Q: What sequence folds into this?
């Protein structure tokens, strides 16, 4: 029964985060977003909460705004802090249609979650497990330790069928966050951390 519930929602929705805490006294929730990508916030009208006991319910969003590493929102039926606190820890799912970019549009980070990253020299670097930011660029968090700027200058191709991101990374970038490597030159570090700000867009179909 539980596995059927999870499988059913996975077909139509994406899990974006969880309820971190109650916010204020009027039933507002603070929801942390795993990827840090808040581009969908202004378009959200509904979300689904799945509690720790796997009780699933869809809520209409009354008010919403970005907050810290996620957003705060008031939901229909939640009228006080007790209502909100009862949902702390619940998984937050939203309709997958919010994460489908059109050809030529900037990608949503969640579209490439769990993709493999392959460098043209090194080969397989690892799996995209999360996202971060340095204030100027979105960062791919690989194997929970390596951070790679996701900018078009580094990306050769994104294969959505194979779930692979082909990249051409500057020499030294992969060793910056590796505690085993202590010999990265100042020039390599500067090149790898250069302020690139171009976004990656979904390739147009031929």
A:
């Amino acid at each position: 029964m539980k596995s059927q519930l999870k499988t059913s929602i996975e077909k139509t929705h994406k899990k974006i985060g969880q309820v971190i805490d109650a916010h204020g006294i009027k039933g507002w929730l603070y929801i942390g977003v795993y990827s840090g990508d808040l581009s969908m916030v202004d378009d959200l009208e509904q979300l689904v909460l799945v509690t720790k006991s796997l009780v699933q319910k869809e809520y209409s969003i009354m008010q919403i705004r970005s907050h810290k590493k996620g957003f705060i929102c008031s939901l229909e039926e939640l009228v006080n802090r007790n209502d909100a606190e009862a949902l702390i820890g619940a998984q937050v799912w939203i309709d997958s249609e919010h994460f489908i970019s059109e050809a030529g549009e900037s990608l949503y980070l969640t579209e490439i979650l769990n993709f493999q990253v392959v460098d043209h020299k090194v080969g397989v670097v690892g799996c995209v497990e999360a996202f971060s930011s340095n204030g100027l660029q979105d960062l791919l968090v690989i194997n929970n330790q390596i951070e790679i700027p996701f900018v078009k200058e580094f990306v050769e191709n994104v294969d959505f069928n194979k779930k692979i991101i082909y990249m051409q990374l500057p020499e030294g970038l992969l060793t910056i966050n590796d505690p085993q490597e202590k010999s990265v030159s100042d020039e390599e570090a500067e090149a790898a951390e250069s302020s690139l700000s171009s976004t990656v867009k979904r390739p147009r179909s031929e």
In short: The longest strand covers residues 56-67. Confidence is low (pLDDT under 50) at residues 182-189, 191-197.
